[in-house]
Design brief:
293 residues, mainly alpha, 3% strand
Length: 293
């Protein structure tokens, strides 16, 4: 009995020792992975993106990691390829990261990068489809005038855009031909914006810098709209008179063909004059002095 007890203790000690050794090995491997991660991040910080990818790959394929950790490493690897403009490789590792991830917020971010990688690698059509899949589009009510992928362009939203315009331009786009021209222009602006978003330009530092400038421009434009509201009027008679006086500019074209451009020209001329008068008043009110060099 005593002999069996001693044998049992010996086996138990061996099992414990084995567990300690395994723990130490795993701990050492974790330290090694952390070291490679630090190495890769330092290389990336210093601008050596191609070398940092080797560090990430060594971690990703060098040992068994949890799915979530593999997802994070795949994402870092994709970011490294993205930074060096290797968008095809970036796409492949973003995709791997998405497959391995269970983090909903992370997946949303990866979806943006997948679309961006496709767009920047010249695959706009694929990027558009990917964006449609990643974005939940709410169905719009009203008469559908056009479709962009799965997105409806309704009469209601186009009319709402026209309603935001100054009065003379509203009148111009109220005709059948004018409305058709505005619709094409509106669709073109949406397509350009979608292409920019697929390229993920809204996440760049340059965009954030310009956004601040745009805010200033919006404020200035809002002020001008408030000050110039209802002060610019163009009627049919004035537009026809302009056409008759400038037939040499329009040559063989008839009035209806150039009506839209005449309205825009007259509107711009009157707007410029009023803006200059407003600026002069502001100069005087603020007692502005400009010194000669």
């Amino acid at each position: 009995m005593k002999k069996e007890y001693i044998l049992f203790l010996l086996v138990l000690v061996l099992i414990v020792l084995n567990l300690i050794i395994l723990y130490k090995i795993n701990e050492k491997e974790d330290i090694l992975s952390d070291d490679f991660l630090k190495w890769a991040e330092l290389l990336k910080e210093k601008g050596f993106s191609s070398y940092s990818t080797e560090g990430y790959k060594r971690i990703l394929f060098g040992k068994d990691l949890s799915k979530e950790m593999k997802s994070k490493i795949s994402y870092l690897l994709a970011e490294s390829y993205y930074a060096s403009s290797n968008f095809e490789e970036a796409y492949s590792y973003y995709l791997l990261s998405k497959i391995l991830s269970n983090d909903k917020e992370m997946i949303k971010e990866i979806d943006k990068k997948l679309v961006s990688s496709l767009e920047l690698s010249g695959r706009s059509k694929m990027a558009s489809k990917e964006l449609d899949k990643a974005t939940s589009l709410t169905r719009k009510e009203g008469k559908v005038l056009a479709k962009i992928g799965q997105e409806d362009i309704t009469e209601e939203e186009v009319l709402a855009r026209i309603d935001e315009l100054p009065e003379p331009l509203k009148k111009l786009y109220s005709s059948k031909e004018g409305f058709k021209n505005f619709l094409k222009s509106y669709i073109a602006s949406i397509l350009i914006e979608r292409a920019a978003r697929r390229a993920n330009l809204q996440e760049t530092e340059d965009f954030k810098k310009r956004q601040k400038e745009v805010e200033k421009d919006v404020l200035k434009n809002m002020y001008l709209e408030k000050e110039l509201k209802d002060k610019i009027k163009i009627d049919e008679k004035e537009a026809r008179e302009y056409f008759d006086k400038n037939k040499d500019i329009y040559k063989d074209k008839n009035y209806d063909e150039v009506k839209e451009s005449i309205y825009q020209r007259l509107y711009q001329e009157k707007q410029n004059k009023l803006v200059q008068e407003l600026i002069q008043r502001l100069f005087e009110a603020e007692n502005v002095k400009i010194f000669e060099n």
